[in-house]
Amino acid sequence: MAATLQKIGKGMAYTGAGILGAVALYLGTSFILSRIPVGTRTPPTEGTIEAYILSNGVHTDIVLPVRTSQIDWSEFIPYTDTPASDTTMRYVGFGWGDKGFYLDTPTWADLKASTAFEAMFWLSSSAMHTTFYHEPSEGPDCVRIYLKPTDYIRLIEFIKTSFRYDTQGRVQHIAGHSYGRYDAFYEAKRVYNLFYTCNTWANDGLKVANQKAALWTPFDSGIFYQYQ
């Protein structure tokens, strides 16, 4: 009996050490790769589009003007999908992420182990969260960027292809879900996992738009490090 318990104890110790080693490798790799910059910051010149990178401390959104000559986002995701239906809002933020986290975990206190497990290991679906703003305020968690028209067109396509569409080619609004009066959720493509998170999506969007970004990052800090 003692020998059996000893074997079990050793097995648990090896398993624990393996998990800690994997976590350390993941965190170490993400730290190193998030410090490697790609792209450059576009200066404000005539014709550039003013946009923002916005974080809530965990999750990064890309915030864009509702209307430009390239697109009117209110025709793609209507104001009426939000509780306020406020057509005076001039900017709209886009954030991709795990559907379970978005809909079932409004605060960290609501996080369930099953939700986290499904999100980390390719077992859940994804959603797009959109939020309308009058105009974001620059600060530690909000950075203004400028996009050349050709780069903005690439970013538009990147965002559009992240949505899931119905048979009529329309975005699929997830009715009855919002964090406040100015946001809405939509069905999205791809699957959230350890290596492709909400922040990885935002970082990839910046890359597509030829903006300054990290080589790879699962965390918002990796993006904002490049704009210090």
From TrEMBL:
Tell me any Pfam family this protein matches: DUF2459
| Keywords attached to this entry | Membrane, Transmembrane, Transmembrane helix
Under the heading InterPro entries, the entry gives: CHP02117 (IPR011727)
Q: Where are the transmembrane segments?
A: 12-33
Q: Its domain of life?
A: Bacteria
Please report the name of this protein according to its UniProt entry: TIGR02117 family protein
**Which species is listed as the source?**
Hymenobacter defluvii
